[in-house]
Amino acid sequence: MMNWNDVIKFANNGSPKPDRRVEKTDEEWRTQLTPSQYKIARKKGTEPAFSGEYCHAHDAGRYSCICCDTALFDSTIKFDSKSGWPSFTQPVADNVIKYEKDTTFGMVRVEVMCNVCDAHLGHVFPDGPEPTGLRFCINSESIQLK
User: Catalytic site residue 55?
Assistant: First the structure.
């Protein structure tokens, strides 16, 4: 089970190798995604708080990357963080998420991306519930429930 020390280690030293890679041109991503999905997943945008389709969803299933369909999070570890974005305590596997230090907007955070296609998902914070203490704060536009 992951913890904040693992996140920092991955952000500083590189994430685990994914099982596969999906790479497309910018034009291919633009064709595949809606304008909003493209802006968030490919250009590192953020949807407004409490506006996302999955913010208050509690349906069973797996949340997959909107770009490459890689399973990322399970609905059983989704929780209401009251942050305005879907939140999860851990990914379905250690190697499906890519972690990078993000110093934009005068803050130091850890950005999380799909490790298979580099789609921007959101950020991870050390203020989640037990047992991991992690809060993966994810944009609804970057994921799909299956």
Answer: no
